[in-house]
Fold this protein.
Amino acid sequence: MEKRSYTGNRENRSPPATQSAYDDLGPSIKGTRQSDKKATQEAQKAQEAMRYWHSEITKTALLFESRWTLLALKRTDPAFADALRRGRNLFVEACVRGTHKQIHTQGAGVVRGFVAAANRMEQAGAPDDAYLVGQCPDTGTMIAIGVQAAQERVREVYGDKVAFFTADELAALCGRVEALRTVAEVKRKFPGAVVNAKSPAPEPPGGAFDYPPD
């Protein structure tokens, strides 16, 4: 009986089904890896763009806020104040879901917006409202209260005549200095109470006047 060979030519044998499947997946896996690499690079660029423009916007905003509040801008130029608000929102949206190019575009727009806002306030002659200045009529002591960004502006305008405080610093003084703590407690319990800014009238020579008995 003739024996049949089942070995055949190995070169002509079909590859296993699993091997064929892997070969078919080759281009797909390669494409996925390239896509992942591009996504990683884009994420890194977006992070760099966010760090850069957050810093630039903060610096420019502080220059504006050293003199004015956004509420003052709204009173002076409502349309521009609204445009600046929308620009800031677009920057936030770009940081959340945009590309690094979109972050650059919106970040640069916000910086230009704050510069333009400062120019508009100056042209309108808007007074500084980022701080308040008070003076003791008896001693001449002057203090300014405002956000930290306003400190340099206060020094520019008043020189060393004014001591600058933030609200937190005054709160700390009112909490730690006994006399101020008493004043703060009174004002807390009696809204509207004010500190008398004038010294009491001096007593006449010889002491207080005594009314004669009836």
The two ends are 159 Å apart (CA to CA). Helices lie at 17-65, 70-76, 78-97, 100-123, 151-158, 167-176, 178-189.
